[in-house]
Amino acid sequence: MNGDSGCQSIDVMQANKHGFNVQAHPCADGDCDAVSQCSYNVSVEGKKKYGKSAYGPGASIIDTNKPFSVTQAFVADEEYTEVWKLRTTWT
């Protein structure tokens, strides 16, 4: 992301067989932060909550060698002018 673009962005899904990451890059007064202030990285937070072998090839919860689904939901007001969170569900 270009830090002077003035555009907010959300990295909805950055993933491969070994990791999954979601990040938000907020803007305030036209100044955007290229470093995410809000992220979820399954390799870090997921290990803390579910154990180090929960996601990846041969993992106990999401075995990335097998088919699985990812659903993303934006939680916002009716007009989607204010987004409160991005909900990610793996099945």
Give an overview in words.
- By secondary structure, the chain is mainly β.
- The chain has a domain at 9-65.
- Helix content is 10%, strand content 46%.
- It has a three-stranded antiparallel beta sheet. Strands 3-4 form a two-stranded antiparallel sheet.
- A hairpin with a 2-residue loop joins strand 3 (27-28) and strand 4 (31-32).
- The radius of gyration is 15 Å and the shape is elongated.
- The model is unreliable at 1-5 (pLDDT under 50).
Please outline what is shown here.
10% of the residues lie in helices and 46% in strands.
How are the elements arranged and paired?
Layout: E1 9-16, E2 19-25, E3 27-28, E4 31-32, E5 38-41, H1 42-50, E6 55-56, E7 62-63, E8 70-76, E9 83-90
Parallel strand pairs: 6-7
Antiparallel strand pairs: 1-2, 2-5, 3-4, 8-9
Helix content: under 10%
Task: Return Rg in Å.
Answer: 15 Å
Largest β sheet strand count, sense and barrel closure: 3 strands, antiparallel
Q: Report the span from N to C terminus.
A: 30 Å
The strand order across the widest sheet is 1-2-5
Number of DSSP strands? Answer: 9
Low-confidence stretches: 1-5
Quaternary state of the chains: single chain
Topology as H/E string?
Answer: EEEEEHEEEE
Structural class of the helices, strands and pairings? mainly beta
What average pLDDT do the residues reach?
81
Q: Count the helices. How many?
A: 1
Q: Tell me, briefly, the overall form.
A: elongated
Estimate what percentage of residues fall within beta strands: over 45%
